[in-house]
Every structure is written in structure tokens, then in C-alpha cells.
Amino acid sequence: MEENYENSLFIEYNDIDFLISVGQYDKELNFKIIETETIPSKGIQDGKIINLEESVKSLKSGLSAIEKKTNIIFKEANVITNQKNFDCINVTGYKKMNGNQILEDDISFILNDLKKKISDIEKNKTIIHLFNTKFILDKNYIKNLPIGLFGDFYSHQLTFFLMDNNDLKNIKTLLNKSNLNLNRIILKSFSDGISLVNNNNSGSFINICIGEKDSQIIFFYNSAYSYFQNFNFGSNLIYNDIAKVCSLDLDEVKKLIKDTSFDKIEKKEKELINQKYFKNKNFRKISLEHVKEIIIARVDEITDIIFRKNINLNNLEIKNLPIYLTLKDINIFINLRQTFKNSFKEDSKLVENDNNILNKINNTQIFGELISKGWSSEAIPVAQRKNSLFQRFFSVFFD
After folding, report:
1. DSSP 13
2. Vertex 71, ends 357 and 55: CA angle to 5°?
3. Domains of the chain
4. CB distance 283 to 252 below 8 Å
5. 121, 319, 332, 344: which has the fewest Cβ within 10 Å?
6. What integer best gives the mean pLDDT of the chain?
7. Segment 243-269 mean pLDDT
8. Number of Cβ atoms within 10 Å of the Cβ of 242
9. Between vectors from CA 132 to CA 33 and to CA 385, what angle results, nearest 5°?
């Protein structure tokens, strides 16, 4: 089959499936998705490849299907990963200007000096993303790169996202065993942030995502991906606490949450937990109001740890920013979203995490446009193709 260099292959993977997409660029580098294929994933756990042989089998099956659909044999792929085991490091570089004009070379020096220092320190990790986060000239925040301005002292903050070399090697090996090379990798949390920027016309916000077993907080500042933190708990804290206090099996607690609109339960309501949830256990007269009190306590605990009492956020410019709250657990979303929302400030906005195919295609659409058009705050190459119309770099400052 004849190769078509105007088409690009995108692979998004998680614990459930591989989503394989083919996107096409026109002469103006506009991007559109022309074909997709979804195949169940194997050998993936918490977004990481833990069984290479099984994951290769899954990927090859999907690739075979997509190549038959498009009549194209691909040699490289762009990868979207929802892996959360990566490092986020904020570092600031400085330069005394002594009243001189800031030139491109000044900024280039700071970027490459910081990049070298991070690479020397984190020898077992690879830089996946690098963002221009803050520009401060003579103690004044500047929104854009201050090239051409005059000042005495300039500081430039960069945010590095690094992946363990072994995890990156596993991704490359997964592709190599499928006769593919890695073109570029992107963190799904980055594409999620871009989606929020595009949909809400706000470049600065906090995105808090709460799953059943883990949670994340993501911070964007002036459209730059500036902070990420993962937590090894989620709505399971709610389920476990109810199970313990009410002496219920965990599965029955989940059914109780699914069946009950706890957001609508008011104080002093005396309705009891239905006896059917106790199954083989002794029935206990426990009111739904008391269960809601347990829920509120755990929700407040979750938001305290992730947001309100998180000391890692002290140095971030988060005051008065909108909070986008994503609840992955559909039963929590339906029956407890107002309880979660009440635990945050009034101007928070709730965003449902829709794991359907359209949401995943949106990630690929964002990635495709990122490769061709770049992202305003990203300071690393957005593509590295040779002899193609896609060979372009966003930042001229990055070596």
C-alpha cells in the first residue's frame, strides 16, 4: 500500500481500550479525523503498560482493522496516555538586564539552562511537556514573552512534565513491536485542559477530577499547564466509610448510592435505609439523613486534602479562579454532585466526565491541531517529521 504523508495515526490508550484514529491535514494544516477503531486493551493498569505481550496483541488487532479501513500502512504514531505516574516540576530562571532590552537570546539562554539542569538531575526521566508559565519583569507580571521590553531584572518560570524512562521505553516498545515509531506523546490531562480553555474562553482555572480510586488536581495559568497532582483515593472513601458505619457490604453501599438521591435529602428526614441492602447482615435502623451526614463529612475531607488544605497550592496563583469539577463515578455524579459542589466555592462549575467515544475523539482532535498549530505556552517542538509539510516548531528558543 502506498504511504500517505498527509495522514497521521493517533493512539489513545487506557485500562479499558485502545482508541485508534486516523487524522488528515489539508494544505493549510487544518486537521480532521477520518476514521476510528476501538479495541479492548489488555496489559494496561492505571494507564501503565504492565504486560507488554498482551498489550501488543490488543494494539495489533486494532491497527489491522484501521489499516484495512483506510488502505494505509503507518510507520509512526502519536500517543495519548492517561498515565498519572509522572512528575510536575516548576522552576524559575533569572537574568539581570541592567536596563537593557530583552532579546530572544536572553530567553533562549534561560530555557536551555533550566532544561539542562532538570535533565542532569532527573537522569531517569524524560521531558514530555515543557511550558512557559510566568514572565516577571521588575516584579511585574507580563502576560506574553517580553521580547523587546527594557528592564533591570527578568525571571522566567517553566513547568516541566517528566515521565519515567522505563514507562516511556515500554510505550516505544509497544509501538515498535507493532511496526511503529513514536512521533510524539501527550498527556491526556493536557488535552483535557486545552478542551476547557477552548470551551470556556478561560486560560486560568483549576480542574479537579475525582474517580472511584484516584483523584487529580490540574492547574492552568494563562493557558499554560502549570501544575498536576495525583491522589490515591476518590469516592471509595465515601463507600468505605458508609460500609463501616452502617455494617453494609461494599456492593450494597454502591447500590444504595445508585438508588438514592442524597442531594435532595433534607435534615430531620427519618426515612431508614431499606432492609434489602443488609442482605445476610442484621438489619440496623439507620436513617438516610445519617448516611448523608457521613457523606458530607467524607466529601469535605476529600476537598480539604485535594484543594482547601493542600499546601502544594500555596505558591500558585489560584485565588478567585473558576473550579471545574469532574466526577467520574456516574452514581456519584447523579446523586451527590450538589453535595460535592457545595463543598467548593460558589463559582465552581461542575463538568461531567463523559467517557463515551465522542469525548475520546475530541482528545485526538485536540492532539492533531496541537501538532500542526502548536500551543501558545508550550516551549517544546510540536512535531519532528522529516521532509514533510508538518516539520515545524512552536518555539524557536528550544534546542
Report:
1. E
2. 50
3. 7-84+166-194+356-373 (3.30.420.40), 87-162 (3.30.1490.110), 202-353 (3.30.420.40)
4. no
5. 319
6. 86
7. 90
8. 24
9. 40
pLDDT attached to residue 1: 38
Q: Residue 269 has what DSSP assignment?
A: -
pLDDT band of 387, cuts 50, 70, 90? very low
pLDDT at 347 over 60: no
CB 6 within 8 A of CB 25: yes
Q: Which three cell numbers stand for residue 329?
A: 463515578
Q: Which residue has the cell 468505605?
A: 240
Q: Which residues, 6+ apart, have CB-to-CB distance to 205 below 8 Å?
A: 196, 219, 220, 321, 322, 323, 324
Q: Rounded distance, CA 249 to CA 242, Å?
A: 9
| Residue 259 amino acid letter | D
Residue with cell 447500590: 255
Q: Cell 472513601, residue? A: 237
Can you tell me the distance from the alpha carbon of 90 to that of 156, in angstroms, rounded to the nearest whole number?
11
pLDDT in tens, 284-319: 889 999 999 999 999 999 999 999 899 999 888 888
* DSSP, residue by residue, 270-316: -PBPPGGGGTTSPP---BHHHHHHHHHHHHHHHHIIIIIT-GGGTTS
C-alpha grid cell, residue 176: 515498535
User: What residues pair up with 37 in beta bridges, in sequence order?
Assistant: 20
What are φ and ψ of residue 320, in 5° steps?
65, 20
